[in-house]
């Protein structure tokens, strides 16, 4: 069975061009198009697609609002937000709406197809054309008010972090680079790297992203 897809975008030429590309694939079928968020919502109820390619900015009802409404009724649909922007707040709003991912419109054909297939299959996606879910963005999504003191205390006690490591973990979750950390803490970047490696070892992770995800898991 082909992947059933709806394209929701207010630019007709973009919809038509994308449809033409997708329909060259034997495992994909575009079952409908929508020019605004309201039409996308209505079409989703009628056609029950597998994947919706949803533009962020559309008239009547924007893509983020439409996605939220669709997923409240049809949570199994995978929605990929489309945009020419990659600002943090847009990414955060899209992910909070329940979208499976956020893809840039300048993705090439092969990457677009790869991302759709991976999303449909429920696989983790790694692509330069996906908006980068950095630790900073993950932190904002789950902690808009900042690090919860109680959770921070639990993590520090559980993993026996030093005062320096606690400080660096806080900076990491806010998306600070090694250089920014070194400037804030008045230490060399090599010292920051050493502390990060010690943190990763104690947490049992291998990267900034895994450290951020571990924190979010503990928070839940």
List keywords for this structure.
single chain, about 220 residues, alpha/beta, Rossmann fold, Arc Repressor Mutant, subunit A, 2 domains, 5-stranded parallel β-sheet, about 55% helix, about 15% strand
Q: Share of helix among residues?
A: 40-55%
Give the percentage of residues in beta strands.
Answer: 5-15%
Give a short account of the largest sheet.
Answer: 5 strands, parallel
Low-confidence stretches: none
CATH architecture heading of the largest domain = 3-Layer(aba) Sandwich
Number of H- or I-type helical stretches: 11
Subunit organisation of the chains? single chain
Return the domain count.
2
Order of helices and strands: EHEHEHEHEHHHHHHH
Question: Number of DSSP strands?
Answer: 5
Could you explain how this protein is built, in words?
This protein folds into two domains: 129 residues, Rossmann fold; 83 residues, Arc Repressor Mutant, subunit A (Orthogonal Bundle). It has eleven helices and five strands; from the N terminus they run E-H-E-H-E-H-E-H-E-H-H-H-H-H-H-H. The chain has a five-stranded parallel beta sheet with strand order 2-1-3-4-5, sandwiched between helices. Helix 2 packs parallel to helix 3 and helix 6 runs parallel beside helix 11.
């Amino acid at each position: 069975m082909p992947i059933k897809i709806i394209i929701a975008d207010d630019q007709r030429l973009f919809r038509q061009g994308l449809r033409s590309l997708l329909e060259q694939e034997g495992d994909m079928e575009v079952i409908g198009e929508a020019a605004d968020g309201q039409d996308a919502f209505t079409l989703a109820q009628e056609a029950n697609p597998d994947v919706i390619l949803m533009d962020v900015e559309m008239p009547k009802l924007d893509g983020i609002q439409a996605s939220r409404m669709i997923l409240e009724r049809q949570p199994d649909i995978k929605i990929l937000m489309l945009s020419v922007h990659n600002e943090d707040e847009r990414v955060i709003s899209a992910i909070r709406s329940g979208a499976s991912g956020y893809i840039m419109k300048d993705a090439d054909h092969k990457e677009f197809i790869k991302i759709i297939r991976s999303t449909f299959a429920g696989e983790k996606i790694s692509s330069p054309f996906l908006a980068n879910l950095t630790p900073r963005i993950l932190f904002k999504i789950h902690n808009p008010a900042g690090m919860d003191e109680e959770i921070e205390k639990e993590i520090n006690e559980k993993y026996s972090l030093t005062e320096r490591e606690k400080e660096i973990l806080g900076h990491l979750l806010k998306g600070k680079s090694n250089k920014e950390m070194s400037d804030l803490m008045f230490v060399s970047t090599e010292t920051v790297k050493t502390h990060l490696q010690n943190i990763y070892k104690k947490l049992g992770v291998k990267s900034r992203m895994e450290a951020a995800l571990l924190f979010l898991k503990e928070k839940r």
